[in-house]
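Bench log. Compound arrived from synthesis this morning; before running ITC I wanted a structural hypothesis for how N-succinyl methionine sits in the protein. Inputs:
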Amino acid sequence: MKIKSVELRTIELPLVRPFRTSFGTQNARQLLLMKISTYEGGEGWAECVAMSEPLYSPEYLAGAADVIERFLLPSVFQAGDIHAEEVAHILKPILGHQMAKATIETAILDAQLKMAGISFGSYLGSSKPKIDCGVSVGIAPTIDALVEEVSLYISQGYRRIKLKIEPGWDIEPVRVIRKMWPDMPLQVDANQAYSRNDIELLGKLDPFDLLLIEQPLDEHDVLGHALLAAKISTPICLDESITSLESARDALAIKATTVINIKPGRVGGYLESVRIHDLCVENNIAVWCGGMLETGIGRAANVALASLPGFTLPGDTSASSRFFQRDITNPFVMHDGQLTVPTEPGIGVEIDLDFIEEITSAKKIITAP
Ligand code: SMG
Ligand code: MG
């Protein structure tokens, strides 16, 4: 395949309710969309999961757009005839920027699979037609507001609840939710808000039978997670710290994590995600698919990934309506706590171009030299 042009646009979708984590509150999802066109007449879509500010990860929207245009696309254009399987290798000399790299690889893979008539799910190794859905619940203004929000998701059928926590919003919300729903699969996510000094405090979560605690410490403190894991009984699950197959292997080797959250953007794409999945299957480590408030474009590919056999825990693969009133594709609608894996070629969803145009704040077309 030879890439002819790449369209980059920034869009903004309002969230149905503010989403608060330990690093900030989001009221809207601003994101970068990519459409590639090939000389063979193919088209591929992807979204970049970087947030507008570098708070979850060092990458951010405008930075991703810049590195894509300035460094990544020139390398891709120079490579000429290209397959998705070669993209990571071609981009390797440019360090970091996994989310930006994942966007290019995914758009090329979408175009390639659409041309070949193969769905993302079949290509990646899907083993089931439907996946179980979990939902991520932000830090609420009050315990009552939290109970109300969790009740709504449970009534909608979600099969696992994840509570965002931070110092001062941890033991009490977990205690209340666990008491109301004693059998609900429940987990927490701190987004790095604690330190090694908090081991005793985090141990107070042990009585609540949580599936896991996600990324309690700094992303660079992998050893700290191993020390914590040795002292508490709640399983540790790394998110931000896992940026590649190698980092997953190392974290498992020192027992810093016993469950892994795979986010394709964070690890450089779906192909690296499958490699991490395979490593975990070999080592009997449960994996689940994380979420980055994706629109239908990113969600479609995530749902396909989450249908691989090693994804044994429900992911942050919620319905479109969890975040958006209106999605930019045909919406993902949950039935009985599950989403159906798309089977059409490529990411397998219909793109609502009219709506995308309406919410586009910037657009740029980069043509191959
Ligand atoms: O897409 O359902 C989703 C969001 C899930 O909590 C979620 N993601 O650390 O796992 C995480 C966060 C990262 C994004 S928070 C702005
Ligand atoms: Mg997380």
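What the model suggests: The chain has 13 helices and 13 strands. Residues 21, 26, 51, 56, 136, 189, 191, 239, 290-294, 316, 318 surround N-succinyl methionine (ligand 1) (CB under 6 Å).
ITC booked for Thursday regardless.
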